[in-house]
User: Fold this.
Amino acid sequence: MGFFDALMGRSKPKPANLDDLFAVPPAVLTLQAATDFVPTGVAAVAFRAVEGGAIARAEEEARQLITSDPDTTVRTEEDDFGYTWLVIADANADTVNLVTNLHAVNTALESQGFGPMLLCSTVYFRSSQGVEAALVYLYKRGTFYPFVQAGPQRRDSAVEFNIKAAIGADLKFEADLEKWSPLWGAPGMSDPPRELPAP
Assistant:
């Protein structure tokens, strides 16, 4: 932090610590106990793709790590803002496995020097009424926030705050509400829930 930042009471956001992602599975259990949201078994990593072989190799490395698991699939989508999304689906809706794969993708890109290109990681949920939600990890800030899409271009802030109230003690939530950006129709969010195998 610089002298003028300290003088003006400003602080730099905490850099990402990818291990914070491993706090998500216990938080998901808390969320399920407190709300009717359940994980869909889908997660994603969004990053700004650039031309060149290095990022393609890093993306392929991440893809190979993920697809070595027979219960996991991955696909690539582009959004309207120029971001590439690696959408990961786990056949067993295993949040621990999803988060491990999210971590692998982020680490692969970061280790090749593409950390500045990372935007966010998301884990998706759906309520019993079909409301779609995401738990979003902002790479550049090392914080989480919820996004609840209640319809086309419509978010439900009240439910977002309920989610924060439920798991705010489990995760490092983003304090600046202006950073709680909507992810309208984010790739993977509307995927059908994974069908769990019969016991």
Observations:
- The first strand starts at residue 38 and ends at 48.
- The chain has a mean pLDDT of 85.
- Helices lie at 3-7, 24-34, 53-67, 95-111, 157-167.
- The domain at 13-179 is CATH 3.30.70 (Alpha-Beta Plaits).
